[in-house]
Amino acid sequence: MVVVLAGALFVADRIAVNRTESTITSRIEKRVPGSHAKVTISSSPFLVNLAMSGTIKEMHAHVTNVTAGRLTLDSVDVTVHDLKVSRSDLLHGSVKLTGMSEATIQATTSVADVIAATLGAAVGLPSGSSASVEAGPSSVHISFGPFSFTVPYTSIVPCVGTARISGTDVVLTCTTHTLPPALKSA
Description:
The structure is a single chain. This protein is 27% helix and 41% strand. It is α+β, with helices and mostly antiparallel strands. It has one domain (2-183). Strands 1, 2, 3, 4, 5, 9 and 10 form a seven-stranded antiparallel beta sheet that branches. It has a three-stranded antiparallel beta sheet with strand order 6-7-8, with no helix packed on it.
């Protein structure tokens, strides 16, 4: 009997995790048109943690094909810690995210795509270069020496704190304490 009960609880836990991951994946893809998302929840046992604290310890979203103005971001990785979920809404079949402790967002695009999108001349940007980053209300201005470009914020990349060159890629990173709009409930 105990084995059957434990098995049933395990199955219920997996169903709840899969449903939550699927709902958040669909939400991101709806709010970031043309993108493809994969959401993974690392909170086990999910239902026990959720019942006790109302939080998911860690969630990771990997999103590809994100358009930011004229620039296409190859990938955006969002790692959220202590994601707050409405337990009553979850009991009624809806996934409502109400807050979080912190999220780290890392977006990657190629140097060639940045140059093409900004209509810049071919420039050499050595790997390891850091940029100056000036955040504005709706976009961020990034300068690598004399080469500069602007990236508008998106619902999945609502901030940029640093920019650097890694090999042939531009890597944009930030940390936020506000739930990214692409994750928010309708």
